[in-house]
Structures are given as structure tokens and as C-alpha cells.
Amino acid sequence: MAEIETVIEDERWAEAGLEDLAERAGRATLNWLGMDADIVVMGCDDARIATLNADFRGKPQPTNVLSWPAVEHVAHAPGAHPPRPETDSLGDIAIAFERCRDEAAAQGKPLAVHATHLLVHAVLHLAGYDHQIDPDAATMEAAEVAILGTLGIDDPYLEKET
Questions:
Q1: Are strands 38-44 and 4-8 parallel, antiparallel or unpaired?
Q2: pLDDT (tens digit, 9 = 90+) per residue, 49-83?
Q3: Please, which residues have CB within 8 angstroms of residue 67's CB and are 6 or more apart in sequence?
Q4: Residues whose CB falls within 8 Å of the CB of residue 15, separated by 6 or more in sequence, listed in order
Q5: How far apart are CA 70 and CA 89, in angstroms?
Q6: Where are the alpha helices (DSSP H) in 58-133?
Q7: How much is the pLDDT for 33?
Q8: Under a CB-based contact definition with an 8 Å cutoff, are residues 46 and 96 in contact?
Q9: Could you tell me which residues are beta bridge partners of residue 67?
């Protein structure tokens, strides 16, 4: 059975239950993908993720979540689901506390709901999903909505009526 390892660098993530959130989001996404692969999730702060974002993407600012796939992904037709990677280790994820907390508050959502969405999103990136072009973004969003639905989380892309 796949292992979903959680590394806590910012203790606020421990208090927020990141280990359980990562386990739940990771398992739901792996089940939906029909995969059994290990994932490592690191809960950090904005400063740490800004450094990682600068080092790996050349963008020296914080972001909500980053992912590092363990394997190179195979090209696929625009809008098609990517082929499942053949690997025992899917890759690594980093998620930033302040950015996630602030985004959740701005969206009027509990931190756990927003973090779960971001973790599902990141695991899909590890599996080869992308949102660089509209057809791929639509496929990835539909996957996220389906997976989050299995967890009892509403579609995060629906506009909230005020």
C-alpha cells in the first residue's frame, strides 16, 4: 500500500491537521487515478516556499503549493487525461501555511477544505495533469471536482452567490 508521508516544518500545519488532510486527499486522489504510489507532503511557511519557488521555478515569491513529480510525464493530446505514470513514488509536494490560510479566509472556506483542494491539485500534477492550456485546465478541474466530491467537498470552482 502506498505511503503518504508528511513532514512538518511549520508547527501551525501540525495544529491544522496536515497529516490527516494529506492522507485523506492523497488516498482519494490515488484511488481516483487507480494508482498505488508513495507521496511526500511538506507543510512549510511562506518564506520556505518562496525559496523553493525561486530555486525551482525562478519565481522568488510565495505560492500556495508546489509539486515535484518523480518521473517525466509523457505528452498527451490537449484535454486528454495523461497516461498514468509507472512508478512506486509519485513525488513531493510543499504547501505554505500563510498563503493557504489567507486564501481560505478570502474565499470564506475552512483552511482544511482549501488545503485539501490544493493537495488534490498537487497530487494530480504529480500524476501528469496540467492547466497550462484551456483544454488541459478543464480536464484537471473536472478531476479535482470529482475527487473532492468523493470527500464531500463542494466544487471549488462554483461562484459563491452573495
A1: parallel
A2: 999 999 999 999 999 999 999 999 888 999 999 99
A3: 91, 92, 93, 94, 122, 123, 125, 126
A4: none
A5: 6
A6: 97-107, 111-126
A7: 97
A8: yes
A9: 93
